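Q: Could you fold this chain for me?
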Amino acid sequence: MEAEEIPLRLGVEDVPPAPNLPPVGGWPRALVLRSLALIIAGIALYNSQDGLGSVVVLFILVVPFERLFPRHAHQKFRRPHLGMDLGYAFASPLLQTVGLVAAVLVGVLSFAWIPGLLLRPFIQQIPQPYLLFVGIALFDLAAYWTHRWYHEVPQLWRFHAVHHSPEHMDWISGFRAHPFDGALIAPAFFFLLAAGFSPEFSGLIAIVQVVLGLFLHANVRLRLRLLHPIIMTPEYHHWHHSNEEEAIWSNYSTFLPFWDILFGTYYMPKDKRPTIYGVDEYIPMNMVEQLRYPLIGMGNPWRFIRHPFRSLKGMFKGLFGIGVMMKRSMFRPRGEPFHRAVTRVQKSVANVELD
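A: Sure. Below is the predicted structure, expressed as structure tokens.
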């Protein structure tokens, strides 16, 4: 029998469907975890319909554009893990409430309010019409470095990795995020408050950043070449989510690509577009397990009560180690290849035990 001829280039329609395998850990465990996820989403919807409202608004505003002008035409509406991302969306008000505690803690411990206090006398001298632009630029600068450290410091990346785990970018994928990942913009918020900007102004910028981020995940083929170096675009953010080596650790800015250009992390090639998303590490595809994922290996939470001094000592050592890696991230050479940058930033810290 002659061997079947294999086409040199396979189209999407030629790729066989993935086998229908049982979930990792077996069906009983999967049913328990999925039931817990439904309970979390149900409690969130019972207390607030904001998550449901966000889903309806995004569906009406974004999905028609995805169907008419798709970036990835082969990507179906009912793509893998759509149900989990909908669960994240429904549960978002509850998860954000939980994350608020972490946001306050991170905002205080980040010490971003110190440079804010130092800049406050100069900010107060800026005429009112220019304060909006100055506030956006300062917020984006603080958010750039926080976002960069969430990628380049392993202990912080574990929380942010959940948001980068989707292998399909679309209208709902932006909701997939660990509640403690919301602390990512807390330092920028505290920075603005300390610099003298009103809580209403600072909060509005933070809300706009979150809403804009949801739209930028859409599966829409908007390229907007002329705007690439000026303002954040879907193409810019899709490259940030790309899992192609040359694009990893790039495009950290929230509004203005200027900071990526200035600090050497801007990546917008002219000859290709992002196609591969997700992360290399294994992240479970269940909301309950993803909420637990960054906390694995942190030890028994009750150890602080039993051994408070030892726990405090370990915590400060861990924070010192994180600070060292943040410094390495700040001063790594511009344009350094990804694999060498990883080695530089994650190089072991002498005499420091990292949790």
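A (continued): The longest helix spans residues 82-109.
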